[in-house]
Amino acid sequence: MWRLWRRMKFLLKFRKSVPFIKDFILSGEVDKKKKIMFAGLAVGYVLLPFDLIPDFLLGLGLVDDIAVASFLLQQMVKSAPISLKDKYEL
């Protein structure tokens, strides 16, 4: 339960997420397939022209974008090597 709480706090702190993503991508401990998969999913979501909730709906349009971004980040945290988890206290 505490681990889930720490991860949720981490996901909400965007300034800590960016260095984690950089370290995840540049780490030699992470399999290249995982790096390509996460990068492809992120780029694909940005480039695809449709959303679950259209962005022109004020406020609600960003909800699905935030949900997808936090889901991808949480999956990165789960698949990160222990050294990265320890470095960011996850």
Tally of separate domains: 1
**Helix vs. strand class:** mainly alpha
Helix content estimate? over 70%
> Can you write the helix and strand succession as a string?
HHHHH
Q: Extract low-pLDDT stretches.
A: none
Outline type: globular
Number of alpha- plus pi-helical segments:
5
Give average pLDDT, whole number.
Answer: 81
Strand content: under 5%
Computed over alpha carbons, the radius of gyration is: 14 Å
* E-strand count: 0
Largest sheet: none
Distance N to C terminus: 12 Å
Walk me through the structure:
This protein has 90 residues and is mostly helical. 72% of the residues lie in helices and 0% in strands. It has helices spanning 2-12, 14-26, 32-47, 61-79, 82-87. Helix 3 (32-47) runs antiparallel to helix 4 (61-79). It is globular, with a radius of gyration of 14 Å.
Considering the chains and any ligands shown, give keywords for the structure:
mainly alpha, membrane, transmembrane helix, transmembrane, 90 residues, globular
Brief sketch in words of this structure:
The protein is mainly α and 90 residues long.
